[in-house]
From TrEMBL:
It comes from Simiduia agarivorans (strain DSM 21679 / JCM 13881 / BCRC 17597 / SA1). Belongs to the thioesterase PaaI family. Keywords: Hydrolase. This is Thioesterase superfamily protein. Coiled coil: none annotated. InterPro entries: HotDog_dom_sf, PAAI_dom, Thioestr_dom. Pfam families: 4HBT.
Amino acid sequence: MESIWKSPASLEQLNDMGRNTAAEQLGIVITEVGPDFVRGTVPVDSRTVQPMGRLHGGVSVVLAETLGSMAANMVVDTAQYFCVGQEINANHVRGVSQGLVTGTATPAYIGKTSQVWEIRLEDERGRLTCISRLTIAAVRHGG
């Protein structure tokens, strides 16, 4: 499969972008970039759980938006555009109380000024824990 990236970034570059951000505070790590997806993880630990000991839904959304936003920016010519989130939703379908949760962002639609990304989060056994959809605006620099 041919890559969809117009402004590709290495894992090191993507993880460096997360330094001094919510992603770093929560332990989010970008682990893989494929020809049409970005994948990353978040640990289920004291930084990321809600009072019942399960991964906080808001943390799932942070992981989803982090992956989708990074992917969205790699799909555009970053010399001309930057991408920002406009709307995100999430359906939490299974609680997770330990281990790592892995998210994978894939495009549902890529247009000139808008994008829609689907982000699937799974537990270590490959079971769906959350599915999210992120709408992105591609904004021209100086516009």
